[in-house]
Write a structure and sequence with these properties.
binds 2-phosphoglycolic acid; TIM Barrel; about 270 residues; alpha/beta
């Protein structure tokens, strides 16, 4: 089964509406329509609506960085998945920054995954171990706990669409020095991606495990993108810092296009 590559730019809490619109404009100038690559942008909640009007839908899709799992009610300050369902295709759920700074625990993340799917939004579920967990060789346990809890309420057909992002917390940049931060090596990423597919296969069977897209995030940029994207089982990237720079981000898309062209040639 051929899985479509997906690159998701996580703009985090950067760029006001005007700056977001400008970045989209630049990306639009630098990125072509790619039939085999999905290019997804995750601006701030505030910029989603204006960008949804500006965006060239043949090139880009939008993702929310977060939303609340209840559809409507007295929850001051929150925005629900049902409110953004007509604007976004995807929603990033369980990002390590949300787990860390906003105390998002496993049950909340599980409820958000279910709410996204209920509202026809595809979850980009982030999983990954912290530095101390990595050093204590707890990567597999952490991934297993985070993943199995998050998807525990889903039916097999709902898994097919899911995007899982492996984001080792120790490899995520501070957004500024995204080029020279410690990075996870492609073979390390490959090991975890294989493990994630094993978990999915065990719970939902081989077909689901083959269908689910697994991407990598953590200091990815135009320079190292190719090395991850040619790695067996890696279906895309979730760059943060590099997604704020249109040349870097366009470079990542170009790397994905090179990998796709190679795959096409090999298939002939
Ligand atoms: P980074 O962020 O590419 O700046 O490391 C990735 C992420 O946190 O999603």
């Amino acid at each position: 089964m051929k899985r479509k590559k997906i690159i998701v730019g996580n703009w985090k809490m950067h760029l006001n509406v005007h700056e977001s619109s400008l970045l989209l404009h630049r990306l639009n100038q630098n990125i072509k329509v790619h039939r085999n690559i999905e290019v997804v942008l995750a601006p701030s909640m505030l910029a989603l609506q204006p960008l949804s009007v500006q965006i060239d839908r043949r090139k880009f899709r939008l993702a929310a960085q977060n939303a609340y799992f209840v559809d409507e009610g007295a929850f001051t300050g929150e925005v629900s998945f049902s409110m953004i369902r007509d604007i976004v295709h995807y929603a990033i759920i369980g990002h390590s920054e949300r787990r860390l700074y906003f105390n998002e625990g496993l049950p909340l993340i599980r409820d958000k995954v279910a709410a996204a799917i209920r509202n026809d939004i595809v979850p980009i579920l982030c999983v990954g171990e912290t530095k101390s967990e990595y050093e204590a060789h707890e990567t597999k346990r952490v991934i297993h706990d985070q993943l199995t809890t998050a998807i525990s309420n889903l039916a097999s057909r709902e898994i097919d669409n899911l995007v899982i992002a492996y984001e080792p917390v120790w490899a995520i940049s501070n957004g500024i020095n995204f080029a020279n931060h410690v990075i996870a090596k492609p073979d390390q990423v490959a090991g975890v991606v294989t493990y994630i597919r094993e978990i999915i296969a065990e719970l939902y069977g081989d077909r689901a495990s083959e269908a689910v897209r697994i991407i990598y995030g953590g200091s990815s940029n135009a320079e190292n993108a190719y090395s991850y994207l040619v790695t067996e089982g890696v279906d895309g990237l979730l760059p943060g810092g590099a997604s704020l720079n249109y040349l870097e981000f366009s470079g990542i898309i170009a790397a994905a296009a090179r990998v796709e062209a190679l795959a096409l040639k090999e298939a002939k």
